[in-house]
Amino acid sequence: MALYSLSRSNIAFEVIYDTTWITRIEYSSVSLLAPLFLLFMQDYFYGRAKFSKVLFAILILNVVIALTTLLEPFRYTMTSLRLWQISILPTLVYLLYFMSKAVYLRKKDAILLATSMFTVVFIAVYDVIDSIFFQSGIRFTQFAYFLFVVALTTILANRFISLYRQSEDLNIELSQQKLELARQKNAFFRFVPVQFLNVLGKNSAVEVNLGDSVLKEMSVLFTDIRSFTTISEQMTPEENFRFINDYLASMEPVVQRHEGFVDKFMGDGILALFSGDGEITRSHQTSADKAILAAIEMKKKVQTINAQAKDSHFRGLKIGIGINTGNLMLGTVGSRSRLDTTVIGDTVNVASRLESLTNLYRADILITKSTLSAMTIADNLAIREIDSVVVKGKTDPIIIYEIYEADEPLIRKLKDATLSLITRGIILYKVADFQEALINFEQALKIFPEDIVPILYRKRCQEYITSPPTGNWVGVQHLLEK
After folding, report:
1. Contact yes or no for 320/269 (Cβ under 8 A)
2. Which residue ranges does UniProt annotate as crossing the membrane (predicted)?
3. I need a labelling partner for 77 at 20 to 30 A (CA). Which of 85, 119, 361, 373 fits?
4. Is the CB of residue 95 less than 8 Å from the CB of residue 113?
5. Helices marked H in 51-140
6. Neighbour tally for 167: CB within 10 Å
7. DSSP state of 313
8. Predicted local distance difference test score (pLDDT) of residue 468
9. Residues 6 or more apart from 342 whose CB is under 8 A from it?
């Protein structure tokens, strides 16, 4: 339409001196108006929908007429124009059908476009009839086109505004979806820690499948509240939940500060994992170092809670912690409809047994020799060997050590004072020199009479002096209870 209008302006005569070419451009451009408009309507109303065969035929016919008008000898251009004038009638019929269908289907802006288009068509038909029969030389089509362009511009502007608003609405919706996705992701990581995925070698929760597992060397920390059953019996169910949640909420950040993560909350208990894998840590500490430091901070946290407790249930709160280091299987279990994470292996089982043994030895933190061997900070901590045992369900003995770094100052001072006596007594006990071992343990009890470790060994020595052990004695105690 721009070419058609330009060809009938004075500008065309200033630029193109050959008037025959101006006429060619006028005739060829006018022949393309209807098919190009149909293409525009097709895209506007139906997008990338497949062209109808009629529309395709109209397009081909008018393109051929336009090219012929440009390339044929000038004397034949009027013939081409007459051919187009004849072909425009079926084109207009199809255009009438096309727009009527759009109005019937209630396409947006169809009524306004149809009204403005049929006005142009009516005037264009009038101009065609005038050029054939009356030849007055007066053309109204370009004015009708101008009004149509104004209407079309208004429609397109409204469409642009509408699309802009839709875009804004979509952006808002997308932002809300992102926030919701972030909330869901955060909610997921409240059940499955991101560190668990990292250890599994997964970047996203959607990558996790049933049965995914990995063998890792890690340090396992078990802890729970001592005599919790007795404490819970004094509370209502609501108080129980509030008490447990307050306690767990104070312990979980301690694990995180030492680069571990909680795998399970088990009532009043916690199962935490610590890895020495450089990809998921920020320090050069071993997994054993991290677990030990977390345990010490947990013990100090409990001391602070006891000192500040206003609730009687928190006063005198005591915990037991067992730590073991070694290989374990970490992975997913469950069914297709519900997954859970878990860790399995002797390393986990022994850590759980150690936590149970804290009651027997009246110790807050117990570790195995494998954990002690994996530590790089052992020389800076208060540690003592307390026993060698075979726990129920196992055949291999484990050497148990107590970390008393976080004990009350007086208790720690007494344990330091008896450390050499107890260490010497255990060595003598293991070589079956029960008489000399008994002397060391009794001397230790004179310094610290309430220490359960020399009390246990004194009782054993007295029994073995009376009834010496048989077989290959290595000083290992077989425990019949978990």
Report:
1. no
2. 27-47, 54-71, 83-99, 111-134, 140-161
3. 119
4. no
5. 53-71, 77-104, 110-129
6. 10
7. G
8. 92
9. 263, 330, 331, 332, 333
Grouping H, G, I as helix, E, B as strand and the rest as coil, residue 137 is: coil
The CA distance from 145 to 152, in Å, is: 10
271, β-bridge pairs: 222, 264
Is the distance from CB of 69 to CB of 80 less than 8 angstroms?
A: yes
Residue 316 belongs to what H/E stretch? none
Rounded to 10 degrees, the C-alpha dihedral 185/190/191/193 comes to 90
Question: Greatest CA separation found in the chain?
Answer: 141
Distance CA 289, CA 207 (A): 31
Dihedral sign, Cα of residue 417, residue 418, residue 420, residue 423: negative
> What tokens were used for 238?
């609501």
User: Residue 325: what pLDDT?
Assistant: 95
Cα of first residue to Cα of last residue in the chain, in angstroms, is 93
Residue 401: closest CA among 414, 413, 389, 418: 389
Query: Which tokens sit at 115?
Result: 């009204």
> For residue 79, which amino acid is it?
T
The answer to whether residues 457 and 426 touch, using CB atoms and an 8 Å cutoff, is: yes
- pLDDT-derived band at 278 (thresholds 50, 70, 90) equals very low
Instruction: Tell me the two tokens of residue 361.
Output: 């030895």
Answer for the pair 367, 237: CB distance below 8 angstroms, yes or no. no
Model confidence pLDDT, tens digit, residues 302-342: 988 888 766 655 567 889 999 999 999 888 787 777 777 78
Q: pLDDT band at 189, cuts 50/70/90?
A: low
409-461: pLDDT as tens digits: 999 999 999 999 999 999 999 999 999 999 999 999 999 999 999 999 999 99
Region for 219 from its dihedrals, namely left if φ exceeds 0, alpha if ψ lies in -120 to 50, beta otherwise: beta
What's 382's DSSP letter? -
In angstroms, the CA 47 to CA 474 distance is 87
What domains appear along the chain, each with residue ranges and CATH number?
2-166 (no CATH), 194-407 (3.30.70.1230)
User: Which residue spans within 175-318 are E strands per DSSP?
Assistant: 213-225, 260-266, 269-275
For residues 52 and 56, give the distance between their C-alpha atoms in angstroms, rounded to a whole number: 6
Distances (CA, A) of 178 to 164, 187, 189, 222, 401: 21, 14, 16, 37, 50
Q: Is 81 helix (H, G, I), strand (E, B) or coil?
A: helix
